[in-house]
Amino acid sequence: MDIQSAFYSGLQGYSRASAGVTEATVNINRQTQLNRQNETEQAEAQTETAGSSQRLQAPEPPVSLTDSLVQLGQEERLAQANVKSIQTADEVLGTVIDIRV
Q1: Which terminus of the chain, N or C, has less C-beta within 10 A?
Q2: Distance between CA 93 and CA 27 in Å, rounded?
């Protein structure tokens, strides 16, 4: 087993997971802002038509927000798995150094 490649593989995986967390967080923030904007627009429209019998229905939450939250959870698990890989490579390297000394 090549300890160095296991360490770098874990490091690359952690880096990808970190980028995925950032992407999911940006998407969640963007969707939250859009939802707030839509709610504000609907509230303004309801006050304008308060005397009218028509009521605006609340929009369904966007699917992409749910997808982004799921992606965030997946990236977190991926990062944890890669940290475990890095820790294991570190422990193996420490054991090899102890054996050779």
Answers
A1: C
A2: 39
